[in-house]
Amino acid sequence: MNRRHPSNTRRTLVGFFEDEQDILAVTQEVRRAGFKIADVFAPYAVHGLDRAMGLEPSRLPLVCFLLGVLGAAFKVWFEFWTTASAWPINVGGKPWNSLPAFVPVTFEVMVLFAGVSTVIAFFIVSRFWPGKKAFIFDPAVTNDRFVLVLEETDAAFDPARLRRLFHEHNAVHVEERVED
Amino acid sequence: MATVYSVLRRPLIEGDKSLSRVTEDVCASMERKPSALWWGAFLAALTALLAGVAAVYHLLTTGIGTWGLNRTVGWAFDITNFVFWIGIGHAGTLISAILFLFRQSWRTSVNRSAEAMTIFAVMCAGIFPLIHMGRPWLAFWMFPYPNSRGSLWINFRSPLVWDFFAISTYFTISLVFWYMGLLPDLATIRDRARPGFRRSITSFFCLGWDGSYRTWLHYETVYKLLAGLATPLVVSVHTIVSWDFATSVIPGWHTTILPPYFVAGAIFSGMSMVLTLMLVVRKAMRLEQYITVDHVDKMCKLILVTSMMVGLAYLTEFFTAAYSGNRYERFAFINRALGPMGWSYWVMVVCNVLAPQMFWSKRLRGNLALVFAITVFVNIGMWFERFVIVVTSLHRDYLPSSWSSYAPTSIEIATLIGSFGLFFSCFLLFCRYIPVIAISEVKGVLSYGRSRPGGRS
């Protein structure tokens, strides 16, 4: 077999920008032209960039809701089991199953489950772990640079045209990168 | 003379900052050597903390008898301090969560330090119920775990158990919320620090933050969810603290107004503490363009609103007592204002209701020295409010033969001073080693790089 395998190298075109409005405009335009946006890096959460990139909304609210319900359900069951079943103790003649009195702790445990699990889920989907070595395009990304990364996917990819487009939107720097 | 008013909002951050300028300004104080002022304050706070440690050591080795409590006044200084510190914490969550949901973007300048304040205040608060247990090494008995006593479970009908769950959940969620907000800023420090300890520690804790927008999208979502969870949480926490009192049958405690009254008071006292700290921080760390007179103005208005709510609650309590026809209730309130401890009631009214009335005037809200003085008064007043609620309700109960009085011992006073020492030591360390302003959030509210009205281009 002497057919060449497609190489695993990833070729990207990287544009560096200084302003929020430039990155918004260029991202929108590039996506409209049908290019594949690998990612955009920004020093803060630029509002509207998700629409410009065509990203789906995060599904983390689902995790929050489900784990909140799970936490609350577990806690109601646990309170019922301990006070009315495992060792019922008569406290001031109150009913063993004092459902209204279980509400405060149930609420707290619901918030605890929902909050902590959402953050853990966020770490998982973002592939975060303590001490992880970040892949940084430019150290200025966490300071004042916006970076647009395009993947060169097919033959129609025209770096020259894109460079021109980047510079029209005040790109401070454009470069091609090849990763193995 | 005609005055021209602009219809545009004034920029939140003064000085027409660029993005890198914000990073520079906020990180500058962390990268300088600490000033003599910082060392002086830190050593003073540490000394106070050591006094507290000594007092707690004496308490644990000798017993609760070292406090001024007696059979009638079973709760006094300790619970006053507990409620005081928990209340201080609430403003942090108000600023970080509630104002976030209301889209008050001015909060970005103060939310980081307000959240830090919450965490330190809850730490201080947690100490008091713990040492009041008498045997704090058995504090884990509060946790429902399978044990060799039966298993004997905790009583889920007790507000004290609710409180344990509320405080520990509040602390955890506040810490997680704060840490989430810190992630992008830790990455900023990592990327500007020279190789060394600072870079290693920040790159460990920033979890590999790379600024990818996909991450930002999830991050914003999680931030919103946490804000949505923290908002009812903060209301629930002080509500539950008030239930420690309201579910008892002590006149002066047994009222339905206590939960909203406590929540309003908590935000009132916390807001004052935030302002006390911020007025010092903006001056000492040269952040006047970030925490502007406008920010101070807005916080003063919040203090004024909550002061009025607290004042209304004071009046309502008296009305309800008079209208209830219950002689014990009526006596409790007459005793509160005119009894042997009436002075503490009037300190509370003057500090909490009368002093903040000055904030009606815009000119006085702009006088920062006066604002500082009033916020200190409010802190004192709110401490006395809790003292009034706890002690004056207890010291003269149903049976005149058991009437008693209360005075704190030196050990109790040293413990209170120690809690302030802990709070300020933590806060001063925070100011040195963590960006006091949420860098990435402030960048999001600048007018830099935007074509909208008021923007640069």
The end-to-end span of chain B amounts to 32 Å
Biggest sheet details of chain B: none
Overall shape of chain A: rod-shaped
The number of helical segments of chain A is 5
Question: What's the number of extended β-strand segments of chain A?
Answer: 4
* Range of strand content of chain B: under 5%
The domain count of chain B comes to: 1
Low-confidence stretches of chain B: 453-457
The Rg value of chain A, from CA coordinates, equals 26 Å
Q: Show the largest interface.
A: A-B, 69 and 69 residues
Order of helix and strand elements from N to C terminus of chain B: HHHHHHHHHHHHHHH
Count of discrete structural domains of chain A: 2
**What is the rounded distance between the termini of chain A?**
23 Å
Q: How confident is the prediction overall: mean pLDDT of chain A? A: 85
Largest sheet entry of chain A: 4 strands, antiparallel
What is the gist of this entry?
The complex is a heterodimer of chains A (180) and B (457). By secondary structure, chain A is an alpha+beta fold.
What can you see in these coordinates?
- The complex is a heterodimer of chains A (180) and B (457).
- Chain A has 180 residues and is an alpha+beta fold.
- Chain A has two domains: 11-57 and 135-179, Alpha-Beta Plaits (2-Layer Sandwich); 60-125, no CATH class.
- Chain A is 46% helix and 14% strand.
- A four-stranded antiparallel β-sheet of chain A has the order 2-3-1-4, covered by helices on one side.
- In chain A, helix 3 (60-86) packs antiparallel against helix 4 (99-125).
- Chain A is rod-shaped, with a radius of gyration of 26 Å.
- Chain B is an all-alpha fold.
- Chain B has one domain (36-145, 158-443).
- Helices cover 68% and strands 0% of the residues of chain B.
- Chain B is built from 15 helices and no strands.
- In chain B, helix 2 runs antiparallel to helix 14, helix 7 (213-246) crosses helix 8 and helix 8 (258-284) packs antiparallel against helix 13 (368-395).
- At the A-B interface, helix 1, strand 2, helix 2, helix 3 and helix 4 of A face helix 1, helix 5, helix 6, helix 7 and helix 15 of B.
